[in-house]
Design a protein that fits this description.
Helix 2 runs antiparallel to helix 3. Helix content is 87%, strand content 0%. The chain contains three helices and no strands. The chain is mainly α.
């Protein structure tokens, strides 16, 4: 169990380093859209690969996040 905890901490730290690096190199709005879109991908992968239940509340929430990403990405 401790190995997974350490692995999670390491990947989280690497994720934040990559996030701040992307902020330095790109537009904040674009980087943030990609970051928020990853929530939808994570929920879908958890449902498809791990068999987690996709409740109506989670489905609506992901739909709203996806809709927000689409609306915000329009120029």
């Amino acid at each position: 169990h401790y190995g997974f905890l350490l692995l999670s901490a390491a990947t989280t730290a690497a994720s934040w380093v990559c996030y701040y690096r992307a902020l330095q190199q790109g537009e904040v709005a674009t980087v943030n859209l990609i970051d928020k879109g990853s929530l939808v991908v994570a929920v879908l992968l958890a449902w498809l690969l791990l068999g987690e239940p996709l409740t109506p509340r989670v489905a609506v929430g992901c739909g709203l996040v996806a809709a927000g990403v689409v609306v915000a990405s329009r120029k």
